[in-house]
């Protein structure tokens, strides 16, 4: 995490799992193959007919096979080999799901054509370095169809998905889990599965590219230059988070975002007609996207190619390519039905499908000509990366400073001494709301952290998140770093996950009122699971926000995040603790942090420190000796002040009182037993906690004999001081509880 | 809650707070008033100009003042009196916010014209019985603008909002809290504030009307017949939950849903141009709505009236009336800016606004002619209800059975003996997944509960939620009770809140995988806060779902809901407990219930019972005497079986072991101290809990000396049995822990 060498190869070190598989056989046997790979014509047209009944396409001109198609990237294979490759993808998916007797064969069978075109003809990547910075990004938003991507990574030569991995699909510790996991499988950019997240992540990836390109590209050297592709299904389209993110993508004009909508009309409950009859085309046009319709996604390869070409030509808008496909294409009895969505086909139907598609091979077999055809991606990928490295060397010569900065973003090198920028405070510093102190920290860090960027869900002036030295990231000012998310919390979180996972050195933050984490919890959980170090700046963190009332007052939220794995829940009490929370958040690049911050003013307390925050819980004041106080008062955030005041009064009465700030339970848990004992000695059972939130979970800290003061009901609309008093979150309550226990 | 008398007047009893205000003075003093109430012309046109630059309106024909406008409902006031009434609304809002020095004056000032037209000219309601069944429903989705609605309720004569209530705006225990709360203020249909929820609630209200109308209306007697109106702002429009719900509203063809979009271009961060440049018109047309644009919402009363007329004429689609307004209309220096959104105007600007709008009155004053004009709503409302009661009497004579059923829905009378329909099980009953047992319960209840309706977010066949005796609620089959929500969890929850709050006897349920409560937590929290007894059927409740992996496996979710106020988190272990969970859920009409249900098969255990579930925690087996077992093993849901098996083994070794099912923490908390002591005696500190989820919070139950077995990391993709073993959620782990403690 500290400043490191100038080598770019650190990105290689990001390969989180060693690849221990043996190399492929050096002289593969050649097989003679039938070339009669025409599919059943019944799959090619009936969807289009059905379609015309039910959806309006007011202005979309469909791409037709008769349109003259220029070759897109490289003419790579004749038509029969393409179809053989596509069927290879289909059968790898069929076979893996069949072996696991679990999984989703329908999407890979329907999307194999677009998958093939993307990974074999269009995308630029290096199979031997999945973390090459300038690679095209691909997100399977419809993550349940992950066998599509595993098959593609396998064919393309990624070490993470060997044949034995495919055979371990959905098994314990395999690299082919049931949904794509970025932390398990190099080549997977983001974890998907929960619908709608992936397309929103893709918006974040495309934002990151546009931002970095604007910051670093030079007229003579466009060092940042890649596309972001995604496949999303009907399910993703129905999710609100997708609409939020796509509205922003249109607003920002993310022209290098190309989304394939797998329009197969089938979801788990059957035909999408039962719940989804909107015109997606009209909606996306309204959102400011370019929309293309490929009517025959099952065999219309040239149409898919032409659509991608058209999409790339439209530089000021993201493109949605609606590709009408048949789910489970090739299965004579199950295609175009929900039965092929989420279950193995069954031996009988697998046989029927093999027969139908003319596929004579054993399970998991990749025909030699297909293998040979795809094998070029290893040298070509190496060449792409080498060319880019040469380009970077040129760039470095000419633009030394920018090159160093870009390198630090690629390799996640924080500038040496960055933490010295954090402000510090004394008890004499003026009282202030931690949301304001947060803004001081953000603005101090913006000067030293080139990867810091972010914004608020339309509450910038309440969350205090504007970076004053930068303007707004907008369509025409993409080098700026203040992101305006609008009132779209869920999309905001998912977009930030995409930014964080684009480049290890990007440090996205996002903000709203703490209570509205309820709107974005799906995205926050994925930050935690997929190790995206997003910083969540959550202000108005208690009843202390006052008059806005119970809909706006978090009660259960601290507990609900303390219960979530791999996330840091931080509730700083004053200036030094806010700085400490930022130090922790910046250093934790592989887990997200949530900062709960006050709306109301808080004094700077004697004894608080950045170092203390790093330990999660620590003593801020103590008049006892021998690690045996009469009582320990424990507070967090805005209530630490109350604990400190109660201690003052109790000490005046001769009591030996320790005050502990418990800013992060997770960090405290990670300390040594001896440190924990030094703060919360087992022998002292007289413990009182105070926090303006639920007492749920506090038994762990105060013990069976202690007392937790908190709020186990919804809040109320009134001035903050009044609510504190009525709810008994007071110094007097702490003193009374302490006296009962001493 | 039990079967009751046939009186309709029970709905009156739903008035949750007594109205203790004195009656208005019988002879109000007449004041002589100026009639020069022309507003500043600068407010009438500039928005339209700005608009034409930034939004596309491809097909929407704007309503223009020149269009010949037929009188809508009743010609009620001359133009100057209308404007005076509108300014009264504006100044009540201004004055209340000013007095509180907190609140949102901008929306009420801009939306006063549409608010006036709705409450004074269009809506049918009875101020003296806010719970009259056939009233038109109104939802202020932009809940921060609640002074608009409080002012309207005040003028209309609702007892809940007297002048002294307006003066107590945002104060402790007032009936005019900072956001509208249905449980505080009769006349408020649903709690709003968190953006996007209200429009989704409105979809639920309109669904309920369409459903009940289809079930109960007769060609000669349309006993169910009302509209649902809502006002939403730019913020609501950006939220994904709104898009989800509006997509469904279009799909269902909810023609009696009329939504006013307050298109004022200002949100908290400034001009919406910074984050919101989509064409809302195109999007809503894509969603299947009828869209009308009122270009001048500030003074275009006839345009507003004409738009409502047009909306009512379109019977097969919901209508969005985009009303372009000026936020803070009338304030010479702050209108059309974010500064008027969420803060008091300040004394100086209040004066300037009074001058600008020609308003000579003291704060909170309602001019006598305005008062007199509005006073007709009390007799008219009484008449409307009396007419409807007469209509109902006719209906009752002719359609006795239907009338009784409708009455039971209006008054929330559960049929006598309904709970006898709940299935019961013995240990000999076949092992089954609790999701399947849930389906047996739902289908048994559907036969006896006329108010039960619901569905799944595209997982009906996984959640097992289909009611076999009914078809799908669809546009043309609205009397059916299976609702197909599509993959829209958040919209689903919010729509169910609307259904629940439409009529006390409606019992909506909705379903998805438990982990996806993360997507709908915003709506679930509002169920809890606003006392909507929605039943959340949440299957696949642990790592027991197996191969789908960590994105699908809930870990922290049980804890996160146990921490939430006013909600029941139930995790039944087998058939009897599932029946018990349904009994509890149905009886709790003023708090929501979440049922966490297994994907995997579970045996029916000896000792489980419906009565046990009602107590939250209870002993299912015990070989000890004198309330002093050697150890207490505590399990929930699928892990209760493991606890029972561990007990069997321990007993064979001579130990005295109690097994406790802890199906609902909240219900257990509500039991008497002596009951709690009988289950978990304080003297027995040897306690082991087992639950396939986070251990967070379990210290409260097992105590400092006990041991909680659980999972404090994310899950994994593998067959369920394998994961249980690898994660140590096993009988062996329970036995080992118990032996350590004994």
UniProtKB/TrEMBL annotation, chains A, B:
Give GO BP annotations, semicolon-separated: pentose-phosphate shunt
Single GO cellular component term: chloroplast stroma
> What InterPro entries does this protein's entry cite?
THDP-binding, Transketo_C/PFOR_II, Transketolase-like_C_2, Transketolase-like_Pyr-bd, Transketolase_bac-like, Transketolase_BS, Transketolase_CS, Transketolase_fam
Query: What is the UniProt remark on how the cofactor binds and its stoichiometry?
Result: Binds 1 Mg(2+) ion per subunit. Can also utilize other divalent metal cations, such as Ca(2+), Mn(2+) and Co(2+). Binds 1 thiamine pyrophosphate per subunit. During the reaction, the substrate forms a covalent intermediate with the cofactor.
Record keywords: Magnesium included?
yes
Q: Where is the Transketolase-like pyrimidine-binding domain?
A: 432-604
NCBIfam families, per database record: tktlase_bact (TIGR00232)
Q: Name the chain's protein.
A: transketolase
> What organism is listed for this UniProt entry?
Crotalaria pallida
Its ancestry begins with: Eukaryota, Viridiplantae, Streptophyta, Embryophyta, Tracheophyta
